[in-house]
Design a protein that fits this description.
This protein has 845 residues and is α+β, with helices and mostly antiparallel strands. The chain folds into four domains: 233 residues, no CATH class; 155 residues, no CATH class; 219 residues, no CATH class; 171 residues, no CATH class. The protein is 53% helix and 17% strand. It contains 26 helices and 22 strands. A six-stranded mixed beta barrel has the order 2-3-9-6-8-7. Strands 13-15-20-17-19-18 form a six-stranded mixed β-barrel. A hairpin with a 2-residue loop joins strand 7 and strand 8. Helix 9 packs parallel to helix 22 and helix 13 runs antiparallel to helix 15. The longest helix has 40 residues.
Length: 845
């Protein structure tokens, strides 16, 4: 049976014949799709592998089936008894402390962990030399043992068998810690791990009222027990205990949030590269159809309807899009193998290497929708134009719009692409803004391209013939200007924005923070030690400023009577609801405090609890002056009215507290003193640290410079990774530019031959094309610089709430990159065109 004219069977038969000619003209098409799909598939696969590994090792990482945490105080006897009736229990104490050699010459901050005989409930602690944990920590000859990470032994120049001092206690290093089953990846670690027996802790003198100690109670429940039901029962029995609870589904809340946010960011970077590649798809399809104008015109003259032409070449495009998508999926699916090899040793769990169908399916949907969204317009336009116009298109490019149905389908494909981006994102609000920003960026770059073309058109006829040719090439019919400005401009915009954000963060760390930050934070100073501490530091000439304030820890339990766990707040401030926050009290406002709403209480205030709150967090919470907030402090709920709001500059590294209470509320609670100390001479810092910690062994010194250097190392590593991912977008833009050069190759050859016949030398032709691509590169870089700088400004000032400083050298470097890329690719295309001999071309014409 003969297929009906315009039917899908006939269109597929013709498409199959078209595909027999090979992939000529579609290599850039395939590369653009493959890179974008590979980026999205790789990010999704690695993220899924990490979450699968985390879930598989959740019980070991958590240390049991549930983890209960209290700050400042241990569980009561009644609470311990109830826990022990429920299953096997292990108590772990964690705090920061100072460890030093017995001669006092070397000391360092450590993450101290005290464990009982039941630790670990799940997993195994491994030591070098091999041995049992209990034996290594046991008391022998009046001294308890300790185990430490290799970095601690290196800092203090200790070997196994040597002694070290923590607080008032002398310990023996009996092993190097090589494996800790419940060690979670964290970015808030200030020192190496030192592990001791819980029985050794009292001798250190570190356990004082108000000391910042985290008490963890890990419980291994009987098989079949519903952990969440058990936690609900725990809350009913001890409603005011103030537990911070975790079950297997939140074994590493900080790490899984980090993975989610990183996945979102990198997926959007991959999507950006795919959208840039979409421009290459549209240009490749247009170039391919331009080369098929005679074929399409012939089909139309033989009676082929527009729908047959449209369906035929749509089938060709979808077949090739499927090939490009499959290539990208094949590359992305192997990403967990590379991640396991590179990052596996750094992760606290095994990374499962296998296929992850869901992220691959999402990446495939992105690829096919992108191909469809960017190819429908040129396909519809080619199918809609009359045969006479198609024959004319051999020398004059097609213009006009496709049929309304095709335009509606294009809009639908774009809408589906946007919906997919939002629906698959963890933070849908952020993804929604990304979609809005992408649409705005496309519109801005298209408008900029039209401005460049209009400027070239209105430049008149310069006396220099090469410049005249260059300007004409920028605005002539079929000029690649819109595609180049859009694709390369988007890639450069991402690169400029990332580079400027990184530059501003580096400036904050390298310039502003060292000048504003104190030399030390001293924590766990007992109230009866405050006067002695002050005397010690005041007697040292290098100390220029000392500030002290009381501190106790508490967590937000309710806002205006609503349970904090049920609140929906802005993601930027959601961290305030997680974990415990530092609280203080004061009759006077903090030095430099900027009160933006309400007013401070009087110095002799004596009344119901009042609190001063951070203005930024209050805005994200949707509350203000007069609202109430309830905090759980040492198991006791305290409800206070918000008396005023303060704008806090966290970058000052001063003692800033989200909550400052009025006098009369927290004084009776067990608390400690925290102090900041500024030192005029950096060489005197070691002496300050030694004098304080020798005289007050329970006091911990946190050297701010070390924290800043650690932050700078992390920032440099992250910025390198971010620039690498942003480079993917630039690679896609370069591919599109290469596609534009390739698509215009035939026209370049024709122009070069005509110019050579008219007497132009190779040098003059090269100069004309160099001017054309140089102008195009500089114009694209200029537009990208403006948009990228605006995006960086918005992120730094609105999201990070920091000062923004434009770095001209960054913009200049990117402008140079853009110009070099366009000139290089333009030169390659021009050199090939110049190599053509005039006679064969003129004979064919």
């Amino acid at each position: 049976m003969t297929p009906r004219t315009g039917s899908w069977p006939l269109a597929l038969r013709l498409a199959r014949r078209e595909l027999r000619t090979g992939l000529k003209g579609f290599r850039i098409f395939l590369a653009c799709l493959a890179i974008g799909v590979a980026a999205i598939a790789a990010v999704g696969s690695v993220s899924s592998a990490m979450m699968a590994g985390l879930e598989g090792d959740a019980r070991r990482l958590l240390g049991g089936d549930v983890d209960l945490r209290l700050v400042h105080r241990p569980a009561s006897d009644e609470q311990r008894a109830w826990l022990q009736q429920s299953g096997r229990v292990s108590e772990v104490l964690a705090m920061r402390a100072m460890a030093r050699r017995t001669d006092g010459e070397a000391r360092t901050l450590v993450e101290l962990k005290a464990v009982d005989g039941g630790y670990p409930l799940v997993g195994t602690v491994t030591l070098a030399p091999a041995g049992e944990l209990g034996d290594a920590l046991a008391e022998r000859d009046g001294l308890y043992g300790a185990i430490a990470e290799e970095s601690l032994a290196t800092r203090l120049d200790l070997a196994v068998g040597d002694r070290l001092v923590v607080g008032d206690a002398t310990l023996v290093l009996r092993g190097i810690l090589t494996g800790e089953p419940d060690r979670i990846v964290t970015f808030a670690s200030f020192g190496p791990r030192l592990m001791v027996a819980a029985a050794a802790l009292p001798a250190t003198g570190l356990v004082q009222p108000g000391s910042l100690i985290r008490y963890h109670y890990r419980v291994a429940l009987p098989p079949g027990t519903d952990a969440h039901a058990w936690l609900d029962d725990l809350g009913d029995r001890f409603p005011d205990a103030g537990w911070r609870t975790r079950a297997l589904d939140s074994a590493a809340p900080g790490f899984d949030r980090f993975v989610d946010r990183t996945t979102l960011f990198l997926t959007l970077v991959g999507l950006t590269s795919l959208l840039v590649g979409g421009v290459g798809v549209a240009m490749a399809v247009k170039a391919y159809l331009d080369g098929k104008t005679e074929t399409i015109a012939t089909l139309k003259c033989l009676g082929a309807p527009s729908r047959l032409v449209f369906r035929t070449y749509l089938a060709v495009v979808l077949a090739l899009a499927t090939v490009g998508t499959l290539i990208g999926l094949a590359v992305g699916a192997t990403a967990p193998i590379g991640a396991a090899a590179l990052a596996g040793p750094l992760l606290p769990f095994d990374l499962p290497v296998r296929l992850y169908p869901l992220p691959l399916a999402v990446a495939a949907a992105y690829g096919l929708l992108t191909a469809l969204a960017f190819s429908l317009w040129p396909l519809g336009r080619a199918g809609q134009v009359q045969a006479v116009a198609l024959f004319r298109a051999v020398v004059a490019p097609l213009a006009g719009r496709p049929a309304p149905a095709v335009m509606a389908s294009t809009a639908g494909a774009v809408a589906l692409l946007a919906a997919l981006a939002v629906a698959t994102a963890e933070d849908r609000g952020f993804a929604g803004w990304f979609v809005v920003g992408a649409v705005a960026a496309f519109a801005l770059f298209l408008a900029a391209a039209r401005l460049v073309m209009a400027a070239a058109r209105r430049a008149g006829r310069p006396r220099d013939p090469e410049l005249r040719i260059a300007l004409a090439n920028l605005h002539r019919p079929g000029a690649p200007t819109p595609g180049v400005v859009l694709s390369l401009g988007l890639g450069l915009t991402v690169l400029i924005a990332v580079a400027l954000i990184q530059s501003n963060l580096a400036r904050q760390v390298a310039e502003r923070l060292p000048n504003a930050a104190p030399a030390f934070f001293f924590i766990d100073i007992q109230p009866d030690q405050a006067a002695r501490f002050r005397t010690i530091v005041d007697d040292m000439p290098a100390v220029t400023e000392v500030r002290t304030t009381p501190m106790v820890r508490g967590r937000i339990a309710a806002v205006n009577g609503a349970d904090a766990e049920a609140l929906t707040v802005d993601p930027d401030s959601a961290w305030a609801l997680r974990g415990d926050r530092g609280l203080t009290y004061s009759a006077d406002p903090p030095e430099g405090a900027e009160i933006v709403a309400g007013r401070w209480w009087s110095r002799d205030y004596a009344g119901p609890p009042l609190v001063s709150f951070d203005a930024g967090i209050a805005e994200d919470f949707g509350i203000g002056v007069g609202d109430s907030i309830t905090l759980n402090v040492l198991g006791r709920p305290i409800t206070a009215e918000i008396a005023n709001l303060r704008r806090i500059d966290w970058s000052s590294m001063s003692m800033n507290f989200i909550f400052v209470f009025a006098p009369g509320t927290l004084e009776a609670a067990p608390h400690s003193i925290i102090a900041t100390v500024r030192v005029s001479d950096p060489t005197a810092e070691a002496g300050v640290q030694r004098r304080v910690t020798d005289a007050l062994p329970n006091v911990t010194a946190i050297r701010v410079k070390d924290a800043i250097e650690a932050a700078d190392r992390i920032l440099r590593a992250v910025s390198t990774a971010v620039r690498a991912t942003a480079g993917v977008t630039l690679v896609a833009g370069v591919l599109v530019l290469a596609g534009a050069v390739a698509a215009g190759h035939a026209r370049r050859v024709r122009d070069a031959v005509i110019l050579k016949v008219l007497g132009a030398t190779r040098g003059r032709i090269l100069k004309a094309y160099a001017l054309e691509y140089g102008i195009l590169g500089l114009a694209t870089a200029g537009v990208a610089a403006v948009i990228g700088s605006a995006a960086a400004f918005a992120v730094v000032t609105l999201v990070m709430r920091a000062d923004f400083v434009l770095a001209p050298e960054v913009v200049a470097a990117v402008a140079a990159i853009a110009t070099a890329i366009t000139l290089a690719l333009g030169f390659v295309g021009t050199w090939q065109a110049l190599g053509q001999r005039p006679a064969p071309l003129l004979r064919n014409e």
